[in-house]
Amino acid sequence: MKKIFFITAIVFTFLSSFAQEPADALRYSWITQGGTARQQAIGGAMGSLGGDITATFVNPAGLGFYKTGDFVFTPGLVMANNKATYYDHKEKDKKSQFVWGATGFVGGTGQGKKKTHAYSLAINRTADFNSKILYRGINHESSYSQKFLEQLSNNNIHDSSAAFLFPFGSSLAINTFWIDTANGWKSGNRTFQSLATPLLPTGLIQEQMISSNGGITEVALAGATNFNDKFMFGVTFGVPILSYERRTTFTEADATADETNRFDFAKVTDKLSTKGVGFNLKAGLIYKPVEFIRLGLAVHTPSYYFLTDKYEISMTTNTENFQGTLTQRPDDIPEAGIVTPTEFKYSLMTPYKIIGSASYVLREIEDVRKQKGFLTVDVEYINYKASSFHTDESNADNQETKTYLKTLNKAIDKAYKGAFNFRAGGELKFTTIMARAGIAYYGNPYKNIHGEKGSKFQLSGGLGYRNKGMFIDLTYVHTLTKDVHFAYRLQNSPYSGAQIKGSGGNVLLTVGFKI
Fold first, then answer.
1. How many CA atoms lie within 13 Å of 267's alpha carbon, on the beta-carbon side?
2. Can you say whether the dihedral through the CA atoms of 401, 353, 76, 105 is positive or negative?
3. Is 43:34 a contact under the CB 8 Å cutoff?
């Protein structure tokens, strides 16, 4: 347990400023399938169906069905609502954001030949991080300040160095008197105590506000070959561009009106900005054993990111008539020599994926205009615990950094597990009009160490129009999410997380032209 939740505690001094945690690795891998309105309407299933530019990002072999070319663009609107329960108290918040789905070109060559080729250049929003979460409740179990006491204890700190060794953690708490010495700042060993924990019998009002922005946009180049309409093979080279910004404010306050107990409130505000670029490969094949059956298999390599974090934090504590209200940032500690925002460069490797798929096409003939519809299903396995952080070239020889990231990777391995995701959908075609529906389920990535459970469920539907070289697709996707969020974790005291239930809508419009 200590290795899982207290990765920074074993690393001395400045390393406590690092912002990475196991949740960061999960954020960049536990994502739903994005694409065109057509693909989203059928639950995101595109492993064996093909004939859509989204195959570039799922199974590039699906591009092999193209004999001509398409240009498509997909604007969309994402609406997210989150409800949080924390110590039996419920809160909710919401956020909306304009996004782009799969957009780009697809070209096919060799129409009518036994061996044809296709290629695509596309861009797709593969992850969206825009959300707002608010939760609050009265906590009788623990105080946020106890994690600072544990940081000092784990590092065997008992002298005045506690005021500057941890400029992103316990030093701020000491200098604003959220925690203090039990017997004053006398010579010799000192015992540290929290000014908030004596109030636990009556309760501490705790509130967490989290606002996140950004996403992952992937630019991809893919090619596929079709062998006699029986066997297709394709490869994609992808360049994901990651941008994530998060602002968090945690507040802990006295639940009584007593102005003499030396604690009114304490507040921690931090801001994290993560930006970078990566690369990955996707390869897949589709086989048609009989005319109306399509079987697909795709493998996605891990995405390898080169990332830069910028992190800043401030802390404010009001101890009433004891020390009044004090605010401090790492810059305010001369001995630490910190300038914020602090920058840290590193690399991240996300998990691999394996996708198996099958499709049944009604009236499967070469002239797709005469097909009557289809049913399709994807089964995807992703090993979430395979995520790992690594040093950047600039700190490759820093042993403390290596130790920190090695411990972090062990925490990821202990916190998460592999899971299966399922996507299914279908279409019925009425001459130029198509009706579609789909469903998707993304399984629990957590090992349930401290009550963590999560899932994502999607229902989708849409309409399509195709005529004279032009097509328009409109889709609505409704997403239900279950997750958990911990404002802090403790080694030796009980603590609880907020149960998060999210619901959101995604409206997508794809417009395309034959070229």
1. 12
2. positive
3. no
Query: Do 161 and 173 meet the contact criterion of CB atoms below 8 Å apart?
Result: no
Q: Does domain 2-514 have CATH number 1.20.1250.20?
A: no
Q: For 300-362, what is the HEC assignment?
A: ECCCEEEEEEEEEEEEEEECCCCCCEEEECHHHCHHHCCCCCEEEEEEEECCCEEEEEEEEEE
For 186, the 3-state DSSP assignment is coil
Provide CB contacts within 8 A for 314, sequence distance 6+: 172, 268, 269, 270, 327, 328, 329
**Residues 158-176: tens digit of each pLDDT:** 888 899 999 999 999 999 9
Beta-strand runs (E) in 203-301: 204-227, 231-254, 265-287, 293-300
Q: How confident is the model at residue 251 (pLDDT cuts 50, 70, 90)?
A: very high
pLDDT in tens, 406-460: 888 998 998 899 999 999 999 999 888 999 999 999 999 998 777 788 899 999 9
Residue 439: predicted pLDDT? 97
What φ, ψ does residue 27 adopt, rounded to 5°? Answer: -55, -40
Parallel, antiparallel or unpaired: strands 89-100 and 131-139: unpaired
| Extents of the domains making up the chain | 2-514
Q: What is the DSSP letter of 416?
A: B
- Distance in angstroms (rounded) separating the CA atoms of residues 442 and 421: 4
pLDDT band at 11 (very low <50, low <70, confident <90, very high): very low
End-to-end CA distance of the chain: 58
Question: Residue 370: pLDDT above 70?
Answer: no
pLDDT tens for 312-355 read 999 999 999 999 999 999 999 988 788 878 888 999 999 999 99
Q: Judge whether 310 and 343 are in contact, CB under 8 Å.
A: yes
Element (H, E) at 180: strand 179-181
